[in-house]
Task: structure prediction
Amino acid sequence: MVGPVLRVVDVSKSYSDLHVLKGVSFEVWEQEVKVIFGPSGAGKSTLLRCINLLDPPEKGEVYLCGQNLMAPETNLNAMRARIGIVFQHFNLFAHLKAIDNVSIGLRRVKGLSKEEAHVKALEALDRVRMAKWANHYPAQLSGGQQQRVGIARALAMDPDVILFDEPTSALDPELIGEVLQVMLDIAKTGTTMVVVTHEMGFARAVASEMLFLDEGVIVERGTPQHFFVSPTSERVKNFLKQINILYGSHEELLKRSNEGGSK
Amino acid sequence: MFQVLPDPIKDLLRVLEYWDYILTGFITTMELYGGAIVMGFFLGLLLAILRQYGGFFLSRIATGYIEIVRGTPLLVQVFLIYFLPLSLNAILDAQGLPLIPIGEWSFQTTITIIDRSITFTILDRRILIGLLTLGLNSAAYQAEYLRGAIKSVSTGQLLAAQSLGMSRLAGIRHVVLPQALRRVIPMWSNEATYLPKYTVVVVFIGVVELFGTAHFIVGKIFLTLTTYIIIALIFLALIAIISKALDFIYKRTKIPGL
Result:
């Protein structure tokens, strides 16, 4: 493909007096994993909601594969089907079994038959190792399992890019690993991803670029190497120190991903 | 008790002699109830969706309707809908304009049960007006129950549906409503059990439903207490069945794990 999958140009957003985003720009190319991190209130989640226009930006432009999402002639529903989202609180459809959560988009949006959708949904569940839970309802699953179904729901639509909005921050610590493992797997199969997360182990393992967002602007950007070896701004140094204290290091996770990850 | 009802069994049998009247009255009550609850449900659902998602104008129109209907007596509403065409016709007549047709008409059917041939009035002008009023009234109450249930479904559900590429309307239909309609059942059962008793107001526009039948029987044999107790027991039995049935449906449709 020529050109980036996703191009965010000078996006701004405010809620009454509060300027949440003040001109954010970046590009995501095919098979890239972009990690966005920063303190709470920095505008990370708002940025993701601006990208698929669930919360349209006031200024700036968003392009998906060269197509301007803000243009009035754009069919937003069709474009949203090409942008997957994985939510912090999973947002699985509570009245549907795992398999139907994954297949509803295929049926209602992509117009697949019941049988075709079922086959594709089962494949997606298999990729997140949830196939044998296909007939369980969300309330019967753990947080980690729910989030994996959430990832399968996004994957099944074959989107151009998947946005992850702090996918592990609502999980109990012992459930984070299984979700990160699945995310590592799909990153390694070449899925284009934008991930808002504080999981530095994950970032170190697969991020092609990291963006540090604070007070609505990108303060610093660079490879994981850059951030973990020689971050320039004081703000970033401080933040990373805090994260390290809170989370400890993810030696174990890194080791697993280096061993091939897909187990 | 025995002074009020000196011979309860004999009284009971005398009232039950009128079982054919009680039956036609019961059928009319059920028709009013069934028609109004169904009409009220669909109109109420529309009002609830408009109030919740309708934007500036539509949500205000829905709110206005709901508040006016809930804020005025049902009896006034019945009279209004009954007499309004008559008043309008007086004006139209004075202007020499064509009138609203309000002549008496009715669909009836006669069935012989045991030894009696019973005439059921399926629909006439009065029943139709009663049905319309009760349905329009019930819609306002049902709308509020439904809106409460819709609001209780987390906003993330609709967001997730839209982010899959569903339109807002498709998200409401396939994601929000299936959950809201399950949740609404316990609250909605209030309306389902109130409404049978509210149907009695149509007696005032001349519909002979259960209560009207009781009135008629009392006029014939003067057994006031016995007659009204029988009518009350019929309502009690009906509502017990409705309440049990809704309980059953609620348990059957419950989302596993929740």
